[in-house]
Amino acid sequence: MSGLHGTGKTTYARLLAEDFGLRHISAGELFRRIAKEKEMSLAEFSKLASKDPLVDKIIDDQTKKEAKEGNVVIDGLLASWVAGDLADIKVHLVAPEKIRITRIAKRDGIPYREAMKITLLRERIEKERFKRVYSIDIDDKSIYDLVLNTGQLSLEANVEIIKKYIQEYLISHGGK
User: Fold this and answer.
1) Which of 28, 52, 74, 130 has its CA 20 to 30 A from that of 45?
2) Spans in the chain with pLDDT lower than 70
3) Would you say 113 and 105 are in contact if contact means Cβ atoms under 8 Å apart?
4) Where are the domains of the chain?
């Protein structure tokens, strides 16, 4: 489960993991936990990560390890890229910027303007870093099996769409 910040990656991944009896791993939660442990804001930690490839390596190694173990829904900005062929289904979530920022402000308990400033800075830094370090253009959605705008329908309706896609995939692949 991939997508920019505030698209609902963790929420959808958690719900789908529960529905299908799978484990759930969040690269974003891991990133936030490490930032907190280092007593840094997300923007500060993103700047550090842009200079220190060890930060990405820790998260990437954990993502790959979990993907190899299987029976998991992994969410993260680069989760689908990092998991590669280990992922059976790659979903990319999108949402309009205003909706994403509103969600982030609510989640983090901060004013909208602050959430916008932090998020857009973080995304700019990450986009540049991913291009430089991985040669990944996060605007390229060609690797995804399903791209869904989470800003158009309710959470429940979007979950049903993704579940239906997964169920059809399982049927067409013999329950794999």
Assistant:
1) 74
2) 175-176
3) no
4) 2-172
